[in-house]
């Protein structure tokens, strides 16, 4: 573990560039940080991205693994990450709400990862389309920004458009229903699979299979009950209610939906 990370966890505090101390909150746990690093190393990611930087704890975990891969850059998007005064790269960007006092960006500089950081202080729904328009392609993403369904979904939508096939997305805070719902959408409607070791595929209970197999009645049941009842999280490979990862198997293609590589224009699966 980085000395700076060790200090942050031990003191439960962070400091800004002037040395002012702030209580730690909204941080990535040690276990989750190690999970992020494991994926980045296994996939040999070169370009990473996260929405929601906060005090930069997750960024430190990510950048340490990225440096080990001889990575190119880490893109952080956080409208509440105040611009550090001597950050020439972002001088033309309008400062956002100084909610995190620039501590996230400052911590990456302290850990000598400043050369890897590309900081965007626009909201993700503004920053992510700009990345796509310039042709950016990434290998790994960590979604930990706004936790409402609409914002989390927009984060996934645009990240998917710039994520390379084989790339991985980690969702934080799956215990929040809105985030869990976006995660379920990705696994049921898009070309993604759980980033876990191969296990025997879970199946519905025998009683559920019998009920759903009854003509007409089974169809009515499907329309009445929640998708989570018919397809529980564990059947989708969601074994951790706090964070989980999915791997992209191919780029999205919307045509006639007649091949496994494409979706029909009106494709929809309950999630």
Descriptive account of the structure:
The chain is an alpha/beta fold and about 270 residues long. The chain has one domain (about 5-200, about 235-250): Vaccinia Virus protein VP39 (Rossmann fold, 3-Layer(aba) Sandwich). About 35% of the residues lie in helices and about 20% in strands. The chain contains 10 helices and 11 strands. It has helices spanning about 5-10, 30-45, 55-70, 105-110, 125-135, 150-160, 175-190, 205-210, 215-225, 225-230, and strands at about 15, 20-25, 45-50, 75, 115-120, 140-145, 165-170, 190-195, 245-250, 255, 265. The strands form 3 sheets. The protein has a 7-stranded mixed β-sheet, sandwiched between helices. Helix 2 runs parallel beside helix 3, helix 5 packs parallel to helix 6 and helix 6 packs parallel to helix 7. Residues about 85-90, about 90-95 and about 195-200 have low confidence and may be disordered.
Task: Describe the secondary structure blueprint for this structure.
Blueprint: H1 3-11, E1 13-15, E2 21-23, H2 30-43, E3 47-51, H3 57-68, E4 73-77, H4 103-110, E5 117-120, H5 124-133, E6 138-143, H6 149-162, E7 163-172, H7 177-189, E8 192-194, H8 206-212, H9 217-224, H10 227-230, E9 243-248, E10 254-255, E11 263-264
Parallel strand pairs: 3-4, 3-6, 4-5, 6-7, 10-11
Antiparallel strand pairs: 1-2, 7-9, 8-9
Helix pairs in contact: 2-3, 5-6, 6-7
């Amino acid at each position: 573990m980085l000395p700076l990370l060790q200090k942050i966890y031990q003191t439960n505090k962070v400091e800004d560039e002037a040395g002012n101390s702030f209580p730690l909150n909204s941080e990535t746990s040690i276990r989750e940080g190690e999970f992020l690093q494991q994926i980045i190393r296994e996939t040999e990611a070169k370009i990473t991205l996260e929405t929601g930087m906060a005090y930069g704890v997750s960024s430190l975990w990510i950048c340490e693994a990225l440096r080990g891969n001889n990575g190119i850059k880490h893109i952080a998007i956080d409208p509440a990450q105040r611009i550090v005064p001597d950050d020439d790269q972002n001088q033309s960007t309008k400062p956002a709400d100084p909610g995190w006092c620039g501590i996230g960006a400052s911590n990456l500089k302290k850990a000598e990862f400043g050369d890897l950081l590309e900081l965007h202080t626009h909201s993700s729904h503004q920053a992510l389309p700009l990345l796509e328009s310039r042709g950016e392609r990434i290998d790994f993403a960590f979604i930990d920004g706004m936790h409402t369904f609409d914002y989390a979904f927009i984060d996934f939508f645009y990240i998917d458009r710039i994520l390379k096939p084989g790339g991985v997305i980690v969702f934080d805070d799956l215990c929040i229903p809105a985030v869990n719902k976006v995660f379920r959408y990705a696994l049921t409607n898009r070309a993604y699979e759980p980033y876990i070791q191969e296990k025997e595929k879970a199946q519905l209970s025998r009683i559920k299979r019998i009920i759903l197999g009854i003509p007409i009645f089974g169809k009515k049941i499907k329309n009445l009950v929640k998708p989570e009842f018919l397809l529980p999280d564990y059947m989708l490979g969601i074994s951790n209610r706090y964070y989980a990862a999915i791997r992209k198997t191919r780029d999205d293609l919307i045509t006639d939906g007649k091949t496994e590589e494409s979706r029909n224009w009106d494709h929809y699966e309950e999630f």
